[in-house]
Amino acid sequence: xxxxxxxxxxxxxxxxxxxxxxxxxxxxxxxxxxxxxxxxxxxxxxxxxxxxxxxxxxxxxxxxxxxxxxxxxxxxxxxxxxxxxxxxxxxxxxxxxxxxxxxxxxxxxxxxxxxxxxxxxxxxxxxxxxxxxxxxxxxxxxxxxxxxxxxxxxxxxxxxxxxxxxxxxxxxxxxxxxxxxxxxxxxxxxxxxxxxxxxxxxxxxxxxxxxxxxxxxxxxxxxxxxxxxxxxxxxxxxx
Length: 239
Known about the structure:
Oligomer: single chain
Structural class: alpha/beta
CATH superfamily of the largest domain: NAD(P)-binding Rossmann-like Domain
Order of helices and strands: EHEHEEHEHHHEHEHEHEHE
Shape: elongated
Distance between the termini: 39 Å
Strand content: 15-25%
Largest sheet: 5 strands, parallel
Number of domains: 2
CATH architecture of the largest domain: 3-Layer(aba) Sandwich
Number of strands: 10
């Protein structure tokens, strides 16, 4: 079982009985103290017992999940994201533990995740490229996603556009996509434009975007995106 930093803070506020067990080596405990938690230092072979639940903590939350599974422990929780996520929650007042499997990567880390949460992406096209791109961006924690497409869902789209199903046929793709994406990450902002990109709506659509992604299938739209990208100095990625 897992518990998020926000859920653990709620336990503290409610006065729920539990103990925190810190499995980290001394150097990690010194560099990333568990502020606000009175932790017991232990290893996998000396887990203490108590009348309430037990919360196990390692640096990133991976080792403790394995311990719980391997030892088949009851009433025992692994802190999602570990000490890294708890420290971020204490400092930023924001629970980023849901992205702990990517913040553990040195290429992203907590600072990279914060940049994602504050970023805006303009995605042109919600077809075979746009659907998986939108899913990946939203689940990765992008702060705002702007999508534009004037197309409607067709039966022939369903085998390669995973945001849509049979009940969506005939509906505007951007409307369906927004609803599905919100289910994946309710905190993300999804703005839609139910038109094809053109000279009249291009600048307004791109607006405050940090990057433009071209997921279209025609050269005319691609050339327009390239023109907007160069004119306003916004990086463009195409597939």
